[in-house]
Request: fold
Amino acid sequence: MMASMKYAWIACLSALTLAAACDLDGGLNQNEQGAGNQEDGTNLWDGDIAVDPSGAYFLTRSGDRLLYSEIARDATRMLKGLANPERVLFGAPGEIFVTEDYPKGDFLVAYDVVTETPKWRRDIEIERGPTTNHGHMTFPKINLSNDAETLVVANPRSMELIRTRDGETIRSGEFSRLVVDVDVLPDDDRVVFTLDHEWDGDTPETKLVVLPMAPSGDATVIKVPNCSDELAVSPDGDVAFLAPTTCQHDPISVIDLDGGEFVRNLPGFGPVALAPGGRMMVGFMDVENLDEDLFDDPSKIPDRNGPRYHLMLIDTRTLDFDTVPVGDALPRYAVTRDGKIVLVDADDWFEDGRIRVLDVETKTLEAVSGPDVRLEHWVQTSDSQRIYLLDAGLFTLSIPERLVESVAVAFTPQNLNLTPDDAFLLLRENHDRVWVYDTVSGQMLRSVSGGGRAPTPDQASKPLP
Reply:
């Protein structure tokens, strides 16, 4: 949250007094990895592994180069003509877009991985801002239209729409406030820029700028009485939901993107997690910071003498909701791909910070058995039955069994990802080496490295001492 220091501290202290130094990690769990494009591009700088949407190959940083490896066979190479990669997006088949951080300048590059040649290269400016309640802000944020024809490049206070075919600017513009979030709508006709909120007395206001993805056309500005944060957009692109983790008050804002207007505020915090299909979303309540005027039904106001935090399961059409108490630790949550389960944990070591599984239909919350781990780095299988996660080691979570188990590997993985067919898990050992793990046999197949002598698979799979 990019409020002034005065109001940032007021919001932090009034809403979440248990948070140390206001470094908060609640609401939507944004630590999940997966195949295809990640929002704002896969963060190669932090060691993340980008998996091609088809599962044919993966990309990762090795030293100061970009490593390309075909997953089904042992074919690995360092891509020519690229250095110091920061972020990557997948475009049309065989095409990627990479930001590069050079000592003498920064670039955005369209690159053909088959011919290993740049298609075009443009100057940009990579900026690493301060760590805020929005996370560690790094610019530019790069996103791609669903038809892969337009890049959306957001700088701190400006934007460009770039044609992917030739790197030409379609349109550009400037903003009065910092860009907090960028969302390309499903119809590819519009893009939404969520700007940092500003204050009028005790009331925050966030502006959403809805811009046509075309060379011309007027922008629509929607003013929302709420703090800025991650915006959640319905699958049809008609409705959006804005809910911060902290603010002086607790609204979940409902926005009509199609009509270009703010609709209403619900009680609760976020960011919200939308279930596949968009019919249900998850937020949370803090009984120590509730605006009771936002409740249409006063009987739904939680008992202030009970647990501090309650999850909200909200019907996105009727805006009716049920609540489930989850304890006194600031909750994080994610909805499984089948929409049947909400995974809940907390970024602390209170007892109610352990991973729990909430059944959406029965509203039953169950703690998992096994090692006490957190969902800091994780992936889920396509059938929503299993989670792989890293927490000072590799672990699996069986959702049907509600069971966490350790997987014995001879190193501590730093990053992970999973192929779309669930067949291979990719595990980063260090800045240079990634292992390919067969999820069926439970064995390491091989290591991938930009250089140096490779260990054998048995050396990586031996039991931990």
Summary: The radius of gyration is 22 Å. Confidence is low (pLDDT under 50) at residues 1-23, 461-465. The CA atoms of residues 336 and 384 lie 6 Å apart. Helices lie at 5-15, 457-461.
